[in-house]
Amino acid sequence: MKQNLKISLPVLIFGMVSLTLTSGCNPEPPKTRRLPHDYSRYKLSKYDSLEYFNISPDGNRFMALYKIKDQWFAQVNERVFEDFQGTLLDSFSSKPKYSLSPEGSRVGLVYQKENPYLFRVASGDPGRANIPPADTLPRWFVQINQNVYGGFDGDHMPVVKYSPDGSVFGFVYKNRGWYYIRLNDEIFGPYQKADLGITSDGRITIARIDKGYAYLEEIEKTPNPKQR
């Protein structure tokens, strides 16, 4: 009886060690959950590189920005915006800010590009050139679908805002030291400072500083909606 106990004890210890080592080598796989089968599927073109992929605020649309050969495309669900390069720097060294209107009809990019003025030095003494500090910075550009606006002063980055139904887009930009507001085809300004607010219920308000006073002005009529 004592002999059997001596034999069984090492076997038991060896078995416990083996079990511990085995469980350490094969960790339990993480618990995952399969996605539900209620989904929408959209075919993407065979691209060479994919730069951006994002979902719209309402969760009903995606935006993909991809490149095929030397041409850029923006795709929102089944809709494809061709030749979406504009004046965008192809190197993407400075990543642009992208935006998507709530219902997906407008794709916006805000990006910088070097100011070509800096490379055109006038003849004569270059020390006489009087270049404002803002002109030494890269210029800002705003692209909405295939339309490009800019370049604007480099010390203020425009931020694109949309109305809930996507019929209106707007942004504040700076040009030669003055602030302006673009709402679709309409431009307001110049102002010393300006900001733009578009609420979730579609109200559009302009905040501006002009001649020592601060103003809050609600736009009663929607500016000319551009054709999508």
Q: What would you say about this model in short?
A:
This protein has 228 residues and is mainly beta. Helix content is 11%, strand content 38%. It has a domain at 90-118 and 132-219.
Q: Tell me the series of helices and strands, N- to C-terminal.
A: HEEEEEEEEEEEEEEE
Cross-sheet strand order for the largest sheet: 1-2-3-4
- Mean pLDDT over the residues: 76
Biggest sheet features: 4 strands, antiparallel
Tell me how many strands there are.
15
What is Rg? 29 Å
State the distance separating the first and last CA atoms.
92 Å
Give the quaternary arrangement of the chains.
single chain
Strand portion:
35-45%
Query: Count of helices?
Result: 1
**Shape type:** globular
Question: Which helices and strands, and how do they pair?
Answer:
Blueprint: H1 2-25, E1 49-55, E2 62-68, E3 71-76, E4 79-81, E5 97-100, E6 107-113, E7 139-144, E8 147-152, E9 161-162, E10 169-175, E11 178-183, E12 186-191, E13 193-198, E14 204-210, E15 213-219
Antiparallel strand pairs: 1-2, 2-3, 3-4, 5-6, 6-7, 7-8, 9-10, 10-11, 11-12, 13-14, 14-15
